[in-house]
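Cast an eye over my tokenised protein here and flag anything odd:

===
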Amino acid sequence: MTQEELFRKLIAHSKEYGFIFPSSEIYDGLSAVYDYGQMGVELKNNIKKYWWDAMTKLHDNIVGIDAAIFMHPRTWEASGHVGAFNDPLIDNRDSKKRYRADVLVEEWMARQDEKIEKEVEKARKRFGEAFDEAQFRSTAPRVLELSARREQVRLAMVAALTDNDLEALRRIIVGCEIVCPISGTRNWTEVRQFNLMFETRMGAAAHGANIVYLRPETAQGIFVNFLNVQKTGRMKIPFGIAQIGKAFRNEIVARQFIFRMREFEQMEMQFFVRPGQEIDWFNRWREVRMSWHRALGFGDEKYRFHDHDKLAHYANAATDVEFQFPFGFKEVEGVHSRTDFDLGNHQKFSGKKIQYFDPESGESYVPYVIETSIGVDRTVLQVLSAAYTEEKLDGGEERVVLRIPAAIAPVKVAVLPLVKKDGLPEVARNIVDMLKFDHNVQYDEKDSIGKRYRRQDAIGTPLCITVDHESLESRTVTIRHRDTMAQERVPMAELPRIVEELVSMRRLFERIKPL
């Protein structure tokens, strides 16, 4: 099964089992907009809780806020979004499809990396245990040729993006003979800039209404509230402000399911530090955030850092945490050293003094900022992509299982009476009542026990509790574990403790590298 086929299966599975639906589907949907179903919203909320608690509970110098979506229009002038929040877009005249020019080049570079890895693997098979990979990479003519060409293109793209040279970006696409994935042709238009912000009007009368924007990021709500939080919370630098909220971008090239959408949710934390200390804090947060992802247990090799070649206008350091999706390594989180750009610009545009008085040094200054910004929807897709597994069992039977970490699984426990009679449903309902105040518990009595196990596997339920006739006498039940399908007999009275130990987020938090 190819990665593309796997991704299509994942999308179908997400809809079939109530995770994610196309928005307004009865009206043929709305491009790049999705709704979360009954399972998806539970998974999404659990991911948000995992992030929120990791920020605000594990750090006594980080607090949270919830800023409004609508903000004064001058906010977006100060942030640079009105003048510079653009994507370089290029059209293929034959397919009539539009693409981000820089993404086309990045995908070309990724293909060169794949070619290099194929050369390495062929050599590894040829030379066996005597293979010296480092020497091969530094001497093999084909590898050196591919690497040199890739680096040449990378440097040219960085220069074009830095200089906003759209014609140079187009020349790279033509020079690399990049074809449209749909038409297979190289019939490209010129590259144009497109502003991504949605704008609307606020006011009773259309002719007198003010233009406002749907926020393209949540960070600015934190910056404009810096003094409010600092003073009311008596916060001392270094400290952070966290926020989870919706953001909106008029993505022209929205694709890959929920990876890139027009309405999405962000989890952002802005960490305010003393000027001159920002790079040290940047490196520390870089490792903390990677450990948060790896604590989910999908395999360290599934993640990597990608340092930015072209820095945003506000940054002096930036890196992405990338995850290996079925469509390749892609960004799930960005860690940026934003300098004092945001607070400094808001001070300039508002005319209000936005500074921190340091009681230790006796000086006032505009703090520097380290940002961690993670997409909720991309993290949902990351979890689903890593968790989706097709297994062949003994006897030729197959099952589809979502190996979602127990702490963030939509349903923690399913309680299943073996049959719908003899008092077993009543006992099962009592167990549900015992656990439901602490966990999301599902009761299911329809179909054979085997089919019910398969349904729970498909939605990622880590534990199934089966009530059988022996339960009536011994007051014990069978716990079945999703990943191993192993079963154990336990006393009913012990269920709250056992379930809590197995599904608690504490297990995840203990794996996170401390700040």
User: Anything to note?
Assistant: The CA atoms of residues 249 and 262 lie 5 Å apart. DSSP finds 18 helices and 23 strands in the chain.
